[in-house]
Amino acid sequence: MEKFIKHTGTGVPLRRSNVDTDQIIPAVYLKRVTRSGFEDGLFAAWRNDPDFVLNKEAFKKGTVLVAGADFGTGSSREHAVWALQNYGFKVVISSRFADIFRGNSLKGGLLTIILSQEEVEDLWSVIESAPDTAITVDLESRTVSYNSILLTFEIDDYTRWRLMEGLDDIGLTLKQTDSIDSFEKNREEYKPKTIPVLK
Amino acid sequence: MSKTLAQKIWDEHIVRRAEGEPDLLYIDLHLIHEVTSPQAFDGLRLNKRVVRRPDLTIATEDHNVPTLNIDKPIADPVSKLQVDTLRANCKEFGVRIHSLGDAEQGIVHVVGPQLGLTQPGMTIVCGDSHTSTHGAFGALAFGIGTSEVEHVLATQTLPLIPPKTMAINVEGSLKPGVTSKDIILAIIAKIGTGGGQGYVLEYRGSAIRALSMEARMTVCNMSIEAGARAGLIAPDEKTFEYIKDKPHAPKDFDAAVKYWSTLQSDSGAKFDVEINLDANELEPFVTWGTNPGQGLPLNSSVPNPADISDAEERGAAERALTYMGLTAGTPLKKIAIDTVFLGSCTNGRIEDLRSAAEILKGKKISSSLRMLVVPGSARVRLQAESEGLDKVFIDAGAEWRNAGCSMCLGMNPDQLAVGERSASTSNRNFEGRQGKGGRTHLVSPLVAAATALRGTLSSPADL
Ligand code: SF4
What we know:
The complex is a heterodimer. Chain A is an alpha/beta fold. Chain A contains eight helices and eight strands, in the order E-E-H-H-E-H-E-H-E-H-E-E-E-H-H-H. Chain A has a single domain (about 5-165), classed as Aconitase, domain 4 (Alpha-Beta Barrel), CATH 3.20.19.10. A five-stranded parallel beta sheet of chain B has the order 5-4-3-6-7, sandwiched between helices. Chain B starts with a helix and ends in a 9-residue tail after the last helix.
């Protein structure tokens, strides 16, 4: 996973709340067995609308999506994160994210930042009137800045460290194999097993 | 210290706890399906890793499979590739799979409980948000993303931060014609689609205790629609009875029951939030909008966005009405339906089919609509056929299909056409969920059956 320390880019205002995962990427686009190429399905139902924000020239190069509340509700499809990343987004800002979506994004290196609804509204007005406004997201100092505004956000130390180091969660856990082994030794016998197939 | 049920199960599964880090939690059962697993297996291959516990892992095919002509190869080449990839991955990594045609094939959340693999006190995960279904057995069960699927395959654990807990007390008794689906739709309308975010919801109270296991699964299934990752119901005699004869029931059943009986929130346990709902007051519920929180009792009318004070919600309601093609003030019962879908992991179990068949028996569905009846699993289908339910549906004019997710999501051949309107027993009424441009009203199996007979949204009382 790529390290995330600091990113500067322009914003894309998505003035909608409750953007669910079926809007981010409809199910028909989930059939690929790879991790790439999902950008074509991003917001597919809205992409035909010339007035949709991603279709406006001024926002085509944006890398910071600024969305309404409850972004990413619905299914656990990580394809939603891949679609945003494949399209070129590095950061999503909202006042509230669905839990699974947020978990997926932070695992995959798409930084999801929670700001207050007021801060989101201010950001919307600024980028709508001046789409070129540079937005800097600094994970090290946990800040979002644009023009002369400096906003702080929260993220737990562990996730921040993992993102800044670009570390793979699995590799980290595999270092704890001894603890897993000893946990398994004490596991109750009556717990069900699925009977694996023999190779 | 007094603990809630969620805390008890959590604490039992901590492999490692360290200051400033998430807990490393052991996973007892990992369910897999074709859509969210291919990239996870790829990751394993790339890093030369193996599946740590194939014996705690099980796969089934559900999202992409057709529900007609299942003896023929899957027609859509991309769907076929995904299913074939799952089969190949399971073979390579030694994971048991129930493929199309197998009696245990079906929707992953129907298959786990019917095999008896879902048991109280377990941690269960699946790359699917409706894993919350299994919470009906007093298991801590939640949906995960593909990176986490890979993590569980490789380590049988997940690094996680303990959730907060919310008690939802539902007291009283349901009126005839009101079901567990109406309970959960009313809860979501009350707390909102984000209301459960960060919480495990524990459903409690006399109305919940009175529900069958299948009805409890319907409630827990839709916890995610309230924003919660997991729902829980403490196990009781009904739970034990349900598991008893299942293929994977514990051999030492008494020892298991002894432990399971301790799985309740302690009387002094403190929840972060408590919510109360009066079951006596509930009516059949139906959604009018494009998220599951936009629901009302069936006797009401389409709401007027102008009456909503919150600007954000008003805008959402306006957009929803445009998408749904509805006019404020229209009585919900006047809304004409094109397709009735009875199925999904919310309401595709045998009891759901029985309760709908009861209403349809000896009658004909309205000529203005089609009705799809899709059992949640091949086993449910066999059971229904042995009870003659298939005949009831077919004689009524409905289509009797094979098991799968079917019209719950627009991924397989069963989809709504643009502008088509459904009454659906599934769990999501998002824009395009059942097919591009399709319009969904979420309902209980009873309302689905009554609607099929009358052609407009109806409850059994209207017949
Ligand atoms: S039936 Fe619907 S909600 Fe359930 S697993 Fe299938 S697609 Fe998901």
